[in-house]
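Our consortium's second objective concerns turning raw sequence data into structural hypotheses that experimental partners can test. To show how far this objective has progressed, the report includes one record in full. It was chosen at random from the queue rather than selected for favorable results. The single chain below, 367 residues long, was entered without modification.
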Amino acid sequence: MKYVRMPIEVESPEEQGYDTIRFNLSESSIRDRPLSDLRLKLDNLVLAYGAHRGSPQLRTLIAERSGVSDLHVLTTAGAAGALFIIATTLLKKGDHLVVVRPNYATNLETPRAIGCEISTLDLKFEDGFALDVGALEKLLRPETRLISVTTPHNPTGVALDEPRLRAIIALGDKRGIRVLVDETYRDMSFVPKPPVAASISPNAISVSSMSKSYGIPGVRVGWIVCQDVDLLERFLAAKEQIGICGSIIDEEIAEVALADAPRFLIGIDKQLRHALGIVEAWIAGEKRMEWVKPQGGCVCFPRIRADAGVDVEPFYKELAKRGTLVGAGHWFEQDRRFMRIGYGWPLEEELKGGLAAISESLAAAAR
């Protein structure tokens, strides 16, 4: 496999150094939580190999939230680990897949490293980043092996409603194509949530993690949900060959956090709605920017208006001078007039300061 480092990782805040950034609007999760917040007692935890499929208690919690049996759940090293396992299990060089774009870079780069042929369904700002199922179907070929979608979508925050999700899965069922649905942001939704995709059909594969909604990305726990037990067994074989099992400490922490989800997520929803309101008010007053208001997640994907008279490269230089980091459009193979703004991670004053820095940089880069 030919691995290539992704811009989203090369230019990430952890690579740049958090102490070099004043206003960090590039994060795609809620604020990172300290371990003390979970009130854990790990002193008596035996540091043995864990269950290869994942902690039984953790898998039960995931299954209950997913509408499936715990037999249909496999824990992984984050959602990134899940996506790698799925791609390397299902795809080989020359296989064809369809990926919705913009997207989290791993959904594109791992198939590229394998040597796959990729058709991208490009979501358009002018269409509200809505996914056109008919356009998706036109991209399918006899050799198509996988359809890859995300909801709520990263980086736009747009979500699939239940009829559209079911239509995509039905299309995969009809053509014998696996449907991968990255549902990492499912617990952060401002609109009614459809069922977990994997609960709809054995042909659908759902992926999620503890990183985004729960603020513990340092705990590398994600999962695959799939009702096809034979396929899940193949995913297990891949996991065992990569790392045998997950970290028993990480899975213990994830179990405690997930068990507290009903209480915790109520507070997160309130926090996100407030932060989104701050961004919405800023967009309304910043005439050089335009957006599609997100329906979920903790990120949005606005762009500099084409008629705003702003030179994009000087804009980013000005933004860096002000110690502000956003997810520039090229992180997602899009025009750099776009930027992903994470509004769930920064504290309120940091969010306001970062948005003000964007406005100042737009003014400074105006022709």
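The partners drew two points from this record. The first helix runs from residue 7 to 10. The two ends are 45 Å apart (CA to CA). Both points have been shared with the crystallography group to help prioritize constructs.
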